[in-house]
Amino acid sequence: QPGIVRVASTWDFGVAANQAAWTVLGQGGHALDAVETGVRVPEADLKNHSVGRAGYPDRDGHVSLDASIMDAEGNCGAVAAIEHIAHPISVARRVMERTPHVLLVGDGALQFALEQGFKKEHLLTPESEKAWHEWLKTAHYEPSINSEVRDYGKTNLGLPGGKDNHDTIGMLALDAHGKLAGACTTSGMAWKMRGRVGDSPIIGAGLYVDGDVGGATSTGVGEEVIRNAGSFLVVELMRQGRTPTEACKEAVMRIIKRRPEATKTLQVGFLAMNKEGEVGAYAIQHGFTYAVCDAKKQDALLPSASVY
Ligand code: SD4
């Protein structure tokens, strides 16, 4: 009997991204096409300062993007610190499908994208440039917990630091053929050091999919996720029998256990989907949200449970 067809993604802009993914999934299309189509929406959104075009730059003013994509068979591709390409997720997919490699970075990733026919563009918008000039006045790097507008009720928990610092999109989909796929794309932490790479393009950190078990993706301070091989950990915990929510919670607790003090004031959120299409999430801090779309819930936005 046919199983559930579903897509889930991080944060409130996941709603629009899911709807785009649903145009593929709802017609019996493939999960891999769905996640690529879905995350291209926030990549193109000029109001979103943490993904793709209009993403906030690094401290030297360069918009540098990270993205990864993975299917149920362990095929994967990623780009890191790529500049001037509006849809890094599509370059990541080309890395997966047209090279013998998994990850291309920086100038090499750009060269490959141009060879593949992607257009070289200026991605720093006047608004993002203005925000960067504002930031330069203090040049104080302190990731905010959640973007203010997305924080349910509390505003950055009264903590210092900039707003709109992060909000990556991670997306997981299960198609009518019973296949899972995932994608993750971001401009990374605003005002990061030049050359800094986060968790999003690191397979096993920001994204992991295993067709026998499920998939996971993450958002928040990538350094903490890389340190703990976060998304791989979530999938392995599901393999051991945890529900998606239990697995996300345990991975969050592992991150906190490693650095109890530092993690009091930073955000990491995980989103997971098992191969039955069950979805769960967990975050360190209050304020993480995720969007779920299937034939019944066309555009549900849900608050994640959290430690604080
Ligand atoms: C990073 N994890 O580059 C990304 C940023 C992010 O929500 O997720 N923001 O570390």
TrEMBL record:
This is N(4)-(Beta-N-acetylglucosaminyl)-L-asparaginase. The keyword Signal applies. InterPro entries: Ntn_hydrolases_N, Peptidase_T2, TAT_signal. Keywords: Signal. PROSITE patterns: TAT.
